[in-house]
Structures are given as C-alpha cells and as structure tokens.
Amino acid sequence: MYIWLTIIAGLAVLPFLLKTVFDPYFGQDCSYIFKAIKLGIRLQKYKKKKPFYSILDCFLDTVKKQPNKTFLHFEGTSHSYIEVDKQSNKVARALKTHANLKEGDTVALFMGNEPSYACIWLGLAKLGCATALLNFNIRSKSLLHCFSCCGAKVIIAAAELKEAVEEVLPTLKQRGISVYLLSEECSVEGINPLSEHITQASDTPLSADLRANITSKSPALYIYTSGTTGLPKAALVTQERVWTASFIQAVSGVTSQDVFYINLPLYHSAGFLIGLTGAIERGITVVLRRRFSASQFWEDCRRHNVTVMQYIGETMRYLCNTPMKDNEKDHKVRIAIGNGVRSDIWREFLNRFGDVAVRELYAATEGNIGFINYTSKIGVVGRVNFLHRRLFPYTLIKFDIEKEEPVRNSKGLCIQAMKGEAGLLVGKITKRSPFVGYAGNDQQTEKKRLRDVLQTGDLYFNTGDLLRIDEQNFVQFQDRVGDTFRWKGENVATTEVADILTMVDCIVEANVYGVKVEGHEGRIGMAAVKVEEGKEFDGASTFSQVASYLPAYARPRFIRIQSSFEMTGTFKMKKVTLVEEGFNPAAVQDPLYFLDPAKKTYVPLTEEIYSSINTREIKL
Ligand SMILES: *[C@@H]1O[C@H](CO)[C@@H](O)[C@H](O)[C@H]1NC(C)=O
Ligand SMILES: *[C@@H]1O[C@H](CO)[C@@H](O)[C@H](O)[C@H]1NC(C)=O
Ligand SMILES: *[C@@H]1O[C@H](CO)[C@@H](O)[C@H](O)[C@H]1NC(C)=O
Ligand SMILES: *[C@@H]1O[C@H](CO)[C@@H](O)[C@H](O)[C@H]1NC(C)=O
Question: Which residues belong to any copy of the AMP-binding enzyme C-terminal domain (predicted)?
C-alpha cells in the first residue's frame, strides 16, 4: 500500500510537470497532493496497527504529551486535556457499572454544545461503544425515529431536555430502553439521574482491553443528515471515516498552535468531525459555544485568540449583516473552514474582516467523495486533480431537473456532463471510497445508490448535488437537487433568487421555492420573506428589484410574509411544508402577495385573483 501510494504520487505529479509549467495553480496542486498523500499513509499505518489506532488513542497520546494544555474553553471556564480525560474516565466507569455498557453497544446522546458532550463521547469510546448524535431540536415522532434507527439501547439526555424525553418515555419504556438524565436527581419514574454516579466514580484510566475488538470498520458514530425533506437519516460513521474527516483541519493548514472556534452544533459532522475530532488530531485548543451568535462572534475570537473559525450555510452572511465596526479587522482568525458560502458573500467577508483563507469544502457525512478549495480562487469548492480522481473516481452526469433523475441514453447508461455544464456529482463506490449507508433504513440507502452509470452493472453514490467543472478544472457547487426548480423550461436556482430578494430594503430573509399550479408544467416561483421589524412590505420596490435582476421566469410570482422561518440545525430553511401549502389565500394564514406585471408591483393576493389563476383568466 505504502509503495503503491508513492508510485501514484510520482505519476500524479508527472502530467502536471509536463502540462502546467504556466499553470498558476501548479504549486498549490502539488502541495495539496503531497499533504493528502502523507495523510493517506498515516491512515494506512493506523489501520494496520493491532489493535486499531483510533481517534481516542490519539486523544490519549495528546493527554500524555501536553496534559495541561487547554482542550476546551466554554463560557468562561477552561478544561485541560488531562481534566477532560479524567472526567471521561468517570463517565465511562459510571456507565459501565450502572448501564452495563460494553464494546459494540450504541448509546444515543441528546444534548447541546457543552464540554460534557466531549467527555461523554470519550467515555463511551473508552468502553468501545458507538455514539449516536441526536439533534437536540427534535421532538416526539422524529426523536423516536432517530433514536430507533441507530439501534441504541441507552439514551443519555441533558437535564434541560427532560421534558422532551418525558414526552416519548412510554414508548422508550415499552421498548426496554434505559434512559439517563445528566442531573443530580429526577423524580420521574423510568428516568435515571446520572450525574451523581459520575461524580462518585473513580477517574483512573480504563483498560484498553475493553475496546480491543474495535477496527477501522467499527461504527464510531451515527450522525443524522439534516433533513430539509422528510425524516432525518442516520449515517453510519466508521472509525476510519472519523479519521478521514478529522484530517480536514490538517489539509487546511491548521497547526498545533492554532485555536479553533466551534459554534456549530456538535451533533453534525461539521462541528463534531471537522471541529472537535479534527482539533484532537491537531492537539489544539477549542473554544466551544452553545450556539452561534453573530454579535458575539468577533468578541469571542479576540478574547480567546481564535485563529481558525468554522462556517456553514448562512453563518457568513449573518456575520456580514452585522453593523460595521471600527475594529472588525482586529482579530487573529487566519483560516475559515466550511461550506455553502456564495461568492458575493465570500468577497464581502474578506473585504470586511480581512485576510482570512477560506477553505470552502464540499463533502457529505455519508458521502464517499469530497473536495476542498486549496487554491486562492474565490467561489470554488475544489479542483479536479489527477490523483484525487484516480483514488476516488467520480463524475458529473447530466441531470433532468424536472423529473429529478439522471438523463440516460438508449443503452440505459448515464451521460457525462460537459465541461462548464452543471451535472449531478456521483462517486464510484469502491473499497477505498465505500458507502456504508444509513442505519436501519435500507430503502433510503438504496435510493442513494445509482447503478449502470458509465457501464452496465457499475455502482455509484448519488450525492444529490449539482456541481460544475470549469475550463481551468475548478469545481463549483451549483445547487442541491431540490433547491432548483423548473419553470417555463428554465431552471431556477432558489438561492440566487433569495439573494436578490434580500437586497430589497424591507426584506431581511427570503426562502424561495417552487409551487405547482393547476394546468402548468413545472413549478412557479414563490418566496416566503421576513420583513424588517417596524417596516411594511414594499411591493413596488420588491417588484423593481426582481424585475431589474431576474429574468421573468425566475421572479417569484407569489410572496408570503412570515414572521419567522423554520430552520434545520444547519440553518437551512425548511421548504416542504411551504411548498405543500402553496398560495391559496383561504388556506394560508400569512399575508400573501401576487406579482402583477401590469401594475409593476406586488398586490395583495385576493380570493378573486386566486380563482382567476385557477380558471386561467390570469395567465402566468
Ligand atoms: C501539569 O500541571 C501539574 C499540576 O499543576 C504539574 O504537576 C505537572 O508537572 C504539569 N505537567 C506538565 C507536563 O507540564
Ligand atoms: C473480542 O472478540 C473476541 C472473539 O470474538 C471475544 O471472545 C472477546 O470477548 C471480545 N472482546 C470484547 C471486549 O468484547
Ligand atoms: C492572546 O494573545 C495575547 C498576545 O499574544 C496574550 O497576551 C493573551 O494572554 C492571549 N490570550 C489568551 C486567552 O490566550
Ligand atoms: C480558498 O479560497 C480563498 C479565497 O479567498 C483563499 O483565500 C484560500 O486560500 C483558498 N484555498 C484554501 C485552501 O483555502
């Protein structure tokens, strides 16, 4: 394996040497390739080790090397590596004795961002258990669904989530699930308080024999994919996958001197794998926040000398929306790792907050392919390079937005997208880039598998994302399938329309989607918008904005005023219910507006207008 990788490395560099003497990105390509190869070799070494060298072992080695270094800063308290280690020993001992946990068991963790999150996960890892990271915003049916699909026998919940647990307690009891609450006491029958047991337990290390059978393929975590549609799915994250995700900091240039700021929920891969376990891999200090706050962001960074920040979805936009201050460039943040930032915001962010290297990456928790922008080109998620493509074969295929399925030729095979054309990213499922699927959900797992892609019988992972590769081999993220709809034969990217809408004075946020209209193909544009406090929705200026920036087919024909948006844990706006509710004024309580091209404004959507649309007196 080792030799083989080295040969590939040599081969990989050769074509670049021949072809790219004038390529300005040549150096960056090489440096990335070498970094990636070094990490690949390290992972091979860990996998060969008997027993397997896990991220927990890495943590324990760091504890030995730098026991007194701060591992976690949280709300004014600091916890050194050795303190967290000892605390997790107590957790492990308490759970071993009282919950009778052993290697191979799965435990669901239901709590918000706080240092105990890390202690409990480490404690469970010391017992050889996998942890399912439940989203603490979910309740009732969704909570039960998430809990049961990972096959956990035990749930550990934060004290403040007691009521959410009580709500589903009868079902949990029925299924023989043990329920633990992180509090000193609890009067509810069937909920066991855990804190006292942890306090009383010894903090001496546990024998590694307890987890002797763990291999690179063992389940380490279950992470739920943020469902903008339907119920969340539990992605099984193996020990090996934890390592590859933890290397992202290293690939992005984070060193052992850095301080990492986590303000994303730890129940997602961004916060947990790229943030927390990535920090363990680097042996650095983490500044942990309960939740993201745009107004506190830079204050926190200054106070703790943060050098690496994380972003996702809308967080960069929120930062750019904060009022300007004189000291905005006064901070030590040098790297930002994340994904989902649009190029205009990216530019604005750099203008306002100074020279931060933005490592925009593309990856899915359960996916088998990822990219990272390792050059200095704004707006791209990565670059095609020979080695990457060799090791992790992927391709972009033509996609039919209307039918939401790949285009196939007469032989039933998919068609590769041309350079510059948006296509569906699919990654070949191989031993090196496996797709282990979703726990307890074969149907969803099968849905993500795509067969007969380039050859009859081959098997790919369907990322559900549309990307574009340009002439210079830069990879650009286009859209998530479902974030695009089709109207009058044209594709409308919802994020683009939302950007245009939020430039209107009275609109603070916009959630754009397509709705069905009787007798029409495709979906027509509609936007739910949040109006700035103290202001009125201004139909005329909204019209003039969309008319000047958007082609007619992309202009939202209907506008729905909402006082707040329903969000997923990663700040993605929920659309499904909105799409279903449509634009019937009799069914929707919120104020509705209709774009009237003749009057050049948005007018209130009345019952008359609604019925004229249905009878097609009003042409859309
Ligand atoms: C860590 O701190 C403890 C107590 O303050 C001290 O005894 C120990 O020598 C320190 N260890 C290292 C490696 O600095
Ligand atoms: C590891 O596996 C062996 C063989 O399957 C088994 O005998 C042993 O009890 C296992 N160890 C643990 C800690 O489960
Ligand atoms: C941040 O850095 C400054 C200057 O290097 C130093 O004086 C200060 O103690 C550091 N603060 C923290 C919290 O590490
Ligand atoms: C990614 O793009 C940004 C553009 O500002 C750049 O600063 C950064 O260095 C790029 N590369 C990496 C690896 O982040």
Answer: 496-572
